[in-house]
Each structure stands twice: as structure tokens, then as C-alpha cells.
Amino acid sequence: MSLIVQKYGGTSVGNVERIHRVAERVERARKEGHHVVVVLSAMSGETDRLLKLAHEMTSAPDERELDMLLSTGERVTIALLAMELRGRGVQAQSFTGRQVGIHTDSAHTKARISRVSADRIKAALSQGTVPVVAGFQGINASSDVTTLGRGGSDLTAVALAAALKADRCIIYTDVDGVYTADPNIVPAARRLDKISYEEMLEMASLGAKVLQSRSVEFAAKYSVPVEVNSSFKEGKGTLVTREDADMEGVMVSGVTGDRNQAKITIVGVPDRPGIAARVFGAVANANIVVDMIIQNVSQASMTDISFTVPKPDLRKAVDLVQLLSQEIGARSVAVTESIAKVSLIGVGMRSHSGVAAKMFEVLSREGVNIMMISTSEIKISCVIEEKYLELAMRTLHTAFGLDRVSAPALG
Amino acid sequence: MSLIVQKYGGTSVGNVERIHRVAERVERARKEGHHVVVVLSAMSGETDRLLKLAHEMTSAPDERELDMLLSTGERVTIALLAMELRGRGVQAQSFTGRQVGIHTDSAHTKARISRVSADRIKAALSQGTVPVVAGFQGINASSDVTTLGRGGSDLTAVALAAALKADRCIIYTDVDGVYTADPNIVPAARRLDKISYEEMLEMASLGAKVLQSRSVEFAAKYSVPVEVNSSFKEGKGTLVTREDADMEGVMVSGVTGDRNQAKITIVGVPDRPGIAARVFGAVANANIVVDMIIQNVSQASMTDISFTVPKPDLRKAVDLVQLLSQEIGARSVAVTESIAKVSLIGVGMRSHSGVAAKMFEVLSREGVNIMMISTSEIKISCVIEEKYLELAMRTLHTAFGLDRVSAPALG
Questions:
Q1: What is the tens place of the pLDDT at every residue in A41-87?
Q2: N or C, where is chain A less crowded by C-beta within 10 Å?
Q3: Is B87's CB within 8 Å of A16's CB?
Q4: Buried-state track B331-369, b at ≥16 Cβ within 10 A, e below 16
Q5: Domains of chain A: which residue ranges?
Q6: Is the domain A3-174 a CATH 3.30.2130.30 member?
Q7: In whole angstroms, what is the distance from residue B44 CA to residue A196 CA?
Q8: Chain segment B142-194, per-residue pLDDT in tens
């Protein structure tokens, strides 16, 4: 008999019929003899509905009040599932984040978990009860409700799995696992049976929206085996786990694409020490996360500095950089929005050389110009023109041997 | 500077525009120098929407889970109003029932308040903050959310006013006060400036849906002055307060009608001791509240027993009484659904004799037959044929001098 934490996302509890199906799955796991803890998100669309109401009230809603508002969505779904389970004769009880002891700091709307007590869950489990827990929410030291940021229900599930030393944390979602690439862009993409925490983290941070990044960090820290699986069909999912020998045999595990960046270039910057620190210090102070940076070789004591920022922050960043460029005596500021980033990810890169060289060669063969490059131990990213993104992803997917061998299953 | 508890019902916070207007009213009270505590209901329709979801899940939803579900409605409105107030520069903060220390027993969906601490409200007030409190909800000794039953937000407001020794508790609703009769039935009905707790209680229990009964009991017990007023227009409301000499001068304060009762008659009951106790004991055990009872004079050791029950309980009551009538050897059971109860209410009845006689005479002059009569110190009720209810109410209203003297204001 094992202890399983099951987390269901917003689309999996999106209406009454789907909650019935979640109940069936929980009931089945109980009948198979497992202890089950269920973590739920709000019904899909509910968080957006509430946010819309908030912004109809006032232009900049207070964040403590936003948390009070947004935390209601999960309370609805946990109550509905618990009553459904009880109606079927499965002993179940709903619990809020507070009731299961998800303690957080006071950074409303993006709180960080400081401690998980899980006392009431342990008591419920020892009585054979299925605890149905509201994801996404916790409580701070003043006893005020906090929320963990978008995708925070994944974090709740992983944190509870860690606190309870669960055998597995299964994230039920609308896809059946982690793929070598987005199947909408790369039809030959394969589902991975296994992926390491590190690779998953790179995938998540590069825009593969399967698992929230912080939940992967948390899982890695406490070695929680996390399975990503579909709540809509039966079958195997992808296990996110510690790196093993198996994984290192594969050079590249996945290809990701990201259109969410824009490039800013400060042209004609006087090449003096401290200029870069000044620019990026100011940008960081404005809470804008810079992804990639390149600086040209200096010519006649002048240089160009290019960097990428998330598209939603572009206007703010440009305004700031315009001011800075005057202060530092730069010539001008140029903006390119039509860029994209294509990345290869794989723990195998550590032991296989030549991945970067092969990547550049493949892209150049297709006439794709590389504007910026950044590398880490298990990742290589290239910024290219946005229009080439799909082509680049498909070509790299094939070149690195990721294509599915057999024909795709129908349906 | 006085301390005012303002409570707004579901229609008063029914949409974004209306919440803006509530914020205006709160802001005005603050500018006039008052300390303000706001208590809110859920948006009108929200509780029904949630109940519908619950019944779509399962036929008999668990009551603890219902409370988890239903308590979300008020959390939404308090968060929205608090962010709106802060957006206007009024210092405000939302609090749940738990956060303000509304402690209750564990009777889910109809919990009773056991203790009110109000610590966080006191702290907020001392900092000049407007606490915006979720009505209708509390917390039991296990730290589970409870709800106080329909209309429970009134009770929250009165209980907080009592705990805070507030100068006044204003219940803002969709009517501008308590009337001598339902103006939809009696166009000449007048708004009362003042009414005693006792009269208000009789009105409430007889179906005048302005204030929840338990909140009036609570207000009477702790002498909280409660004002009923309109959230949609400016002007005077009705003050519910201790009885005073003024009130006793008036013979009758109001006329109410109630169509919610049905009559059951057990025909041919053997006239032996203990029969009535057996019948009404069984009915009470089935949680059916009997309102009026009459027993005919015995003839040939046989008697008829008639009593009224709430219409929603009629089928259950009839099934039970059919069984009982066989056991006790009664002849038959008859049911009359088309009855109504008309009542006169007034603390003045204590010092004015002849109210009952005059009531019977007025009804008889209109050809209205009286089927049952019950009286209390400040109330006389008659059960009549339902079709005569409006006629009876209007005639009594005029006969007891309650009609408005001046023409009704337009709009």
C-alpha cells in the first residue's frame, strides 16, 4: 500500500461531469489499496473571472485582497469533489491551505512556502479518509490567506508529497506527459518515459507549460518522484525524477521554442568599465528579468550591448534604457520584437561534445541566422528570427534523433 | 464620533456598479467622522449558483462540505469592496468570519454563534482601518468553516455590533424600512419610524423577510439598536429598538400575511388522554414545526384535531399522520392547502383590550370565515381561506388606522 498525492488542474475539474471523473479515479486508487491525497486547482476560467471582477473594481487591486478573492476558486472545487466522493461512499474531507498547514511568507500573490505541517492530513489518512486539499493557497504569520502564484497548485501537491514522504506525486493535466517538443509544432514529437529534474526545470523555464518551475525545484530538493499524466485518458505518463545512467546515454532530450522575448540593443556605448553594471543594475531594480546578453567587440572605444527581456516588460524596459542611454552617452536604442529562442536540452550534453557545433550547422544549413547564443551545462539556446522558429525546431528534432520511430497512434 | 456597523445584503452588492455605490456610502460615513465596520453578504444569486453545483454533484451533499462551498461567496464580495475602498484611498481590509473570531458550534449550515472575539476588528479600528467582514460564516472548535443559515449575515452584523458595543447596526437592504404591511399587498402601507424588538420578531417569524429572526433575538438580548434602511436611496429607515412609551400608544403596529402553512385535520380521534402528546411528539421528532393547533369539543368520545405545518413539510407530515391515525384508531385524515394566516402585531395590545373582538368583527363583515385562531401577548393570528388574504390584510390595515394619511410619494 503506497501513498499517492494526486493533483488535478483547472481543466480536469472544469465542470461537474469532469469532477465526477476525478472522483472515479480517486475511488479506483482507493480500491487498489492506495492512500490518496488529492490537491485541486480552481475550475478553469474561474481565476480569470475573479481577476476580471477585481480589475473592474479598481485599476491596481491590493494584493492581500486579491489573495482573499482568488483563494475562493479552489475552495469551491474541493468542497464539490469531497461531497461527490462522500456521495459515492468514499470517506473524504476537504481542507483549505490553512487547515493543512501550508505556511508561507507574506509576499501576497506570489508567496513562498516556509513550512508544511500537514497535521490534519496525517490524522485524516490514519482514519482512512481521503483529504481533498485546496491548491495554490497558504497562510502567513498574521493568519491571512496567501497564494503561491500561477501554477501554484503543482507546488502545493509537491510540497505535501515531500512533507508526507509520499511514494509518488501525480500531476493530472490535459496532456499525457512531457514531450521531446511541443507536438503542435513538431508532429513527430515523442512522449518521454522519464526526464530528470534538471531537464524539466530547463523545459519549464523555457516555456514548456507542463509543470510550474518552483514545483520542480521543490521536487528536486526533496527527491519527490513526480509523474505527469493525463486526466482524460488512461496510460503511461512521464516520470520526473533523479538523473540516472539511462538518461545520460541520450545526447538531447528535448527541443523547446519561446516567442516571449524581445531584443533591445544599445548602440554606440562608450566602452568604459562599469557601464554594463549600471545598465543591468537599473533593469534588475525595475524587476525586469534579463535572459540573454551579448556585447560586441569594441571598435574605436565604442560597443553595442544587446539583451532580451520578456515581451510584457518591453515597454517598461525601453523607457528605462532610453533614459540610461542618454546618461551614459550612447548613440541610440534599437528594439527587435520578431525574435524567438530555440533551445536543446539534455543532461547527455555533459558527456557528449559537439552538440553546439551540430546545432549551429543544422540551423545554418536551413539558412537560419543566429543572433545570440547562450549555453549552460545541459542546454544550448539560440535567438533567431521568429519566422524560422517552427522550421528550426522541426529540423533540430530530426537531426538529434528525437523523431518518433513508429507512426503516431490515431486519436 | 460613533461606531457604526453597516451590513449590505446580496442585492446591494449584486454587481460591480453596486459595490461602487456601497464604497461611496462607506467613504461618506468615514468622512463624517464615524468609525465603520462593514459586513457583506454574497452577491445575489451566488449562493443559489453554488447550491445548484452541489446538487449536481450528489443528491444529499455533506453539510460540512456545503459550508466550505457556500462560505466562498462572501469572501469574494469582501475582497472586492476592500480593494475598491483602498483604490479610493480609504484604508480598508477584508476579514473572514474566522479572522474576526466568530466562533460557533458545529451544526453545519445552521451553526449558532458561541463567542465573538473581534480582536482583529478592534486592532484595525484603532488604526483607522475599515474592517470589511464576511457575513454568514464562522468557525467551529475544529477550525472548520461553518455557516449561520439563510440571512445569517444579519446575525454577523448584530453580533459584531454587540461585541464592539457599536452605537448602531444599520442593515442596508432593498427596502427602506419596516412597513405596517407588505406594500405589494396593501398599497396604503406606511413605513414605521420605530418598532420594538418583540414586534419585529413577530413580523420576522410571520414572514416579513426584512430581518432574520435570530439576529433580532440577538439584538434584543444585547440591546443593539438596529436600523433597517435602503442601500438604493437616501432617507430615513426604521429603527428596531427597546419598547418605549411611544410605541404603547399605538394599538396595532402591523399586519402580516403568510401563505406558507397548510392544515391537517385528523378526523374522529378517540378522546383519550395522551393522544395529542403522541401525535405532536411524533411530528416534532420528524423536525416538523407545528404552528397552530385546535381540538374540537368532544362528541360521543370522539374529537377532531387540526394543526398547521409549513407547506414544504406537508407531504412528510401527512405520511406520518396517516400512520399515526391508524395506530390511534382515528377515522380519517384531511388536508387543506389553500389556507393563509393573517396577523395583527403590536405591543400596544397589552394595554388595549378589544383588539381580537374588533379583528373578528372586521373579518366577518367582509364575509371571511375564521378557521383557527391563536393569540400571544402582542399578536393575534387567524387562519382563513387563502383567497381572502389580500382583502383581509387591506381591510384590517384600514380598520386599525394604519393607512398612510398623505398620498404616497412618487417613485
A1: 999 999 999 999 999 999 999 999 999 999 999 999 999 999 999 99
A2: C
A3: no
A4: eebeebeebbbbbbbbbbbeeeeebeebbeebbeeeebe
A5: 3-174
A6: no
A7: 50
A8: 999 999 998 899 999 999 999 999 999 999 998 899 999 999 999 999 999 99
Report the residue of chain A nearest B65, measured CA to CA: A79
Helix (H) or strand (E) holding A173: strand A168-173
Nearest to A269 by CA among A290, A293, A288: A293
B contact test, residue of A65, A86, A109 with most B CBs within 10 A = A65
**CA separation for the pair A354, A380 (Å, rounded):** 11
Comparing CB atoms, the residue among A84, A94, A96 nearest residue B58 is A84
Phi, psi of B163 (to 5 degrees): -65, -35
Chain B, nearest residue to A87 by Cα: B58
Interface confidence (ipTM) of the complex: 0.83
Is the Cβ pair A62, B83 closer than 8 Å? yes
CB contact under 8 A, B68 and A79: yes
| A223 Ramachandran zone, left/alpha/beta (phi>0; psi -120 to 50) | left
Distance, CA of A121 to CA of A156 (rounded, Å):
13
Q: Is A66 an interface residue toward B (CB < 8 Å)?
A: yes
Nearest CB to B75 within list A57, A72, A78: A72
B121 vs B247, higher pLDDT? B121
Nearest to A82 among B60, B65, B76 (CB): B65
Chain A CB contacts of B78 below 8 Å? 68
C-alpha cell at B382: 387567524
Question: 3-state secondary structure string, A298-325?
Answer: CECCEEEEEEEEEHHHHHHHHHHHHHHH
Taking CA–CA distances from B66, the nearest residue in chain A reads A79
Chain segment A309-336, per-residue pLDDT in tens: 999 999 999 999 999 999 999 999 999 9
Which of A359, A363, A361 lies closest to A389 in space, CA to CA?
Answer: A363
Which of these, A361, A347, A355, lies nearest to A400 by C-alpha position? A355
Angle, in degrees to the nearest 10, between helices B72-87 and B16-31: 60
B16 vs A: CB within 8 A: yes
DSSP string computed for B266-313? EEEEE--TTHHHHHHHHHHHTTPPP--EEEPPPBTTEEEEEEEEEGGG
| Numbers of helices and strands, H then E, in chain A | 13, 20
Alpha-carbon distance of B15 to B45, in angstroms, equals 11
CB contact under 8 A, B57 and A83: yes
Q: How many CB pairs under 8 A join A and B?
A: 114
Question: Looking at the partner chain, which of B65, B69, B83 has a beta carbon nearest the beta carbon of A61?
Answer: B83
Could you say which DSSP state residue A191 is in?
B
Q: Is A60 on the interface with B (CB under 8 A)?
A: yes
Closest chain A CA to residue B143: A99
**Cell numbers for A308:** 532580451
Q: How far apart are CA A367 and CA A340, in angstroms?
A: 15
Q: Which residue type occupies A155? A: L
* φ, ψ at A154 (rounded to 5°): -60, -45
Whether B87 has its CB under 8 Å from any CB of chain A: the answer is yes
Other CB atoms within a 10 A radius of the CB of residue B51 amount to 14
In whole angstroms, how large is the CA radius of gyration of chain A? 24
